[in-house]
Amino acid sequence: MHATITNTTLPSADESAIARESSRSLAVALDSRSDTQQFDFKTDKGELHSVTLPTSALRLLVEVLAEIGQGNAVSIIPIHAELTTQEAADLLNVSRPYLVQLLEKGEIPFRKVNTHRRVLYQDVVSYKQRIDDERRKALDELAAQAQELDMGY
């Protein structure tokens, strides 16, 4: 699946305000125990339409609107999506050559399509989580050492 929804532009102040209000309004429906939620909306021509959403999709929509409401740009990528090495490098905030080194060392699984490497989004996120956990652990150990040595931190 290559359907990636990406909005790299930051929302305007008006869009952020509308997103914040929409997020709050829609969040009320999340308290329901129902698997689906039905919403009615009017088109710009005044026509009334109904739409039924899975509650899980509504939860995601509320999270997206909350992020936009905070002025953040949002990207939605399917978990099973395959990324190019550049997309994976961008996600990890590293250079593409460095990412290729990680792939060749076996740090992140990949497959080749002709001469091109493809990386599963899920594998990139797992790698990021793993290195973030290692960093957190190292920082905790440094903080503990600083406390033991009474370094004033």
UniProtKB/TrEMBL annotation:
Domain Helix-turn-helix: 83-130
Keywords, comma-separated and alphabetical: Plasmid
Domain of life of the native organism: Bacteria
Coiled coil ranges: none
Gene Ontology molecular function terms on file: DNA binding
Annotated protein name in UniProt: Helix-turn-helix domain-containing protein
